[in-house]
Amino acid sequence: MGSDILAADTPLMTQYKEIKNENKDSILFFRLGDFYEMFFEDAVTASKELGLTLTSRNREKGQDVPLAGIPFHSAASYIAKLVNKGYKVAICEQVEDPKLTKGLVKREVVRVVTPGTVIDTDFLDEKSNNYLMGIVLKNNILGFSYIDITTGEFKVSEIEGEDINYRLLGEINKISPREIIIDSDSYRELENTLKAFGENNNINIHEYPKVKKSEEYLKNYFKVISLESFSLENKERAMEVSAMVLDYVVELQKGKELPIDKITYMRTDSLMELNLTTQRNLDIISNGKDQGNIGTLLWVLDQCKSSMGSRLLKKIIKNPLLNLDEIRERQNHTEYFINEVLIREELRENLKNVYDIERIIGKLVLETINARDLVALKVSIRNALEIYKYLNGNPIFEIDVKALVEAHNLIEQIIVDEPPFSVREGGMIKGGYNKDLDELHDISKRGKEYILEIESREREKTGIKTLKIKYNKVFGYFIEVTKSNNHLVPEEYIRRQTLANAERYIISELKEYEEKVINAKERIENLEFHIFRELTLKLKESKNVFQDLAYKLAYLDVITNFAHVATKNNYTKPEITKDFDLEIIGGRHAIVEKLIKSGGFVKNNIIFNSGKNMIILTGPNMSGKSTYMKQVALIIIMAHIGCYVPADYAKIGLVDRVFTRIGASDDLLTGQSTFMLEMSEVANIVNSATRNSFIILDEIGRGTSTFDGISIATAITEYIHDNIGAKTIFATHYHELTQLEGQLKNSENFRIEVKETGDEILFLREIVKGGADKSYGIEVARLAGLPKEILTRAKDMLKNLEDRKAIVNEKIKGEQLLLFGGEEKETFQEEKIEKIQSSTEDISKEEKIALRLLKEIELNSLTPMDALIKLNELKRILN
């Protein structure tokens, strides 16, 4: 690059600064010939983030101008790296042909790339969507929308009512956007909720203004007179957020056509609600260890053959259905392919050769498609037509065969089987398709041969045996004749130059050939690109046909995958009903059974009905309580996505929400302690659950003192039982809670079976009726690998404590016999209390309250649990 063009007063730098000033928040890729150049702060940033060499040239106002550049043909990988780090990149191209322009070439930003608007699919995860999400909150109604411009998916919904913030985090976690835009007013209300979550989950969150007239904007974009067809009528937040997201994308793509034809409104009441905690506790999409998918439900179920199928499966798993007909339809489709083994395996073989049609069509519309993509589309169509033949008119795969055949044949006729990557370098159009192109290729290939043919023909025609055709840069191709043969030169020869011993001539045929051969490569490239553009415009007319095909193939992939997984893992078809009942016989944990040796998993049952909807589950830690509870929740979710389930038999009434409170951990991002986080999650459950929900509570009350914990756990259990009536499993280490079975008519005690043989203890992982009376903590410590010395000391201390407890219990029992033996003893008790009161002149207010409460206690109706709670209450007052 010349040292003068970077000077402050050059037209180029003036042009650069004007364009950069309009894109201050982006790194500007400024096209100069075969390079994208970056200057000033952009150059410094790019060199640091991309490992580029930072140079400096010229001096502007006494300072060197930092400079960094990359070849234009490899820009995509550099853009992807910057965007993955959260930067915006503005692509500034030369929009005029430098060969045809005198002076400064016109340049414009043709596209701005952000994390949520990447269109180069080579740098995206093929099994995941790349979503941009928008959020608008006003008057306690939240609208959220998300879009994937590589596939054309555009969805919107609204949330209102209680716990909007918590429910929003659940939706964000399900959508997993790379970028979120939000208007300033909404951001002020949601900043505390979103900021830490975005940073912790690598989501780029920033403000963007709402469109002033959202409804009109959407109508104009989609060219409709009403939004009723999108179910957006009277949904103000949904319209605002949809318009905001669409405006953002259109702005970044600089008005280019997008593969977006509709907005899909999602009714939240048609989908099971899975909040953030539930998604994470059950390892549905990502595991809690490294946020990967190994050891998740997705990992177990995803054996799809296409990237489109894997993406659709992920959405299906995140959004279990509540529509009975839709669930049963998926079940029936799965059942068909379980029974038709040969057809299923043939289809799965064909699906292996189906490319990502969704993203290919996105490229087609966004005009970033190349000839290899078209070949991939052709191969995919061919395999889709083979699938159609196998299914022989089955309504599960109804496609526009005629349009697809025409598209296949068109690509087959025009594009070579192995085209180059670039659409600008030629070599992608088949021979025989275009006469002019064939001639140009012929000229380019034959070259010297053709010149020799003309030379031979002219010698024969003129009789000049020494006639020669030569070439130089000044005159191009010419015929050279010695002066002795000048009398034989035909009249049509045009003299170009006279030499001492020869004359040089040109003829029209030679000049025509010269024009062709000199410009042949450039003309081939331009003509091939023109033919390619005509083909893509023709194919774009069938965009909706291709998008429909993409979804049908993805769905077929998911359903045949369900059948394959069900057969391989010995799953059964669950019976889905509108009843309250839940019955699972021989249930297994879908994930855990894949992580242990074959046949090592212990099956268990569960039965809930209108008379029994609560299980109080006791047993040692590490004995399988959490696994049992989670397996029930996962089976419920699997049933609601239309999948078969790991059980011998399952009958499942529709469940609107699954709630989990499992484990103990601080939330460092929000500054909540273990106990505060636990109580916040429980509050969300009791405020949101309905009778048709399923609730898992594991070890509630562990983060505080024993009496506090027992009191809280008891109160929560009673509230869920009496006021909600949801199907609930309450796992606890408080054995005292087993006494609730006698007080709560719809509750039942179950425990993890333990086998004791001498000093050896074996956890059988089997759930049986009845409550546990031991914790087996030392045995768990042994299994965890604590040194033998610690275990021996712990056993000694445990024995001492149990002996002391027995002595105390005997003493208390004696006092109880004395104080609480009958009516006479009750009278004695009252007299004793009154005597204490009358003999104490300076008794405190708290002591008086405690004495009054003690006097009011109905001792004969107290359970041991109630007694503990009352004693704890008295202790708090006196302290």
Structural overview:
The protein has 879 residues and is of the alpha/beta class. It contains 28 helices and 27 strands. A seven-stranded mixed β-sheet has the order 13-23-24-25-21-26-27, with helices on both faces. Helix 12 runs antiparallel to helix 14. The longest helix is centred in the middle third of the chain and has 33 residues. The termini are far apart.
Gist of the model:
With 879 residues, the chain is an alpha/beta fold.
Q: Give the strand order, joined by hyphens, for the main sheet.
A: 13-23-24-25-21-26-27
Briefly note the structural class of the backbone. alpha/beta
Number of helices: 28
Distance between the first and last residues' Cα: 83 Å
Helix content: 40-55%
Alpha-carbon Rg, integer: 39 Å
Residue windows where pLDDT falls under 50 for at least 5 positions: 665-672, 815-826
CATH topology descriptor of the largest domain: Rossmann fold
Rounded mean pLDDT score: 85
* Extended strand count: 27
> What's the CATH H-level homologous superfamily of the largest domain?
P-loop containing nucleotide triphosphate hydrolases
Give the overall shape, derived from the CA principal axes. Answer: elongated
Beta-strand content bin: 15-25%
| CATH architecture descriptor text of the largest domain | 3-Layer(aba) Sandwich
At the first level of CATH, the class of the largest domain is: Alpha Beta
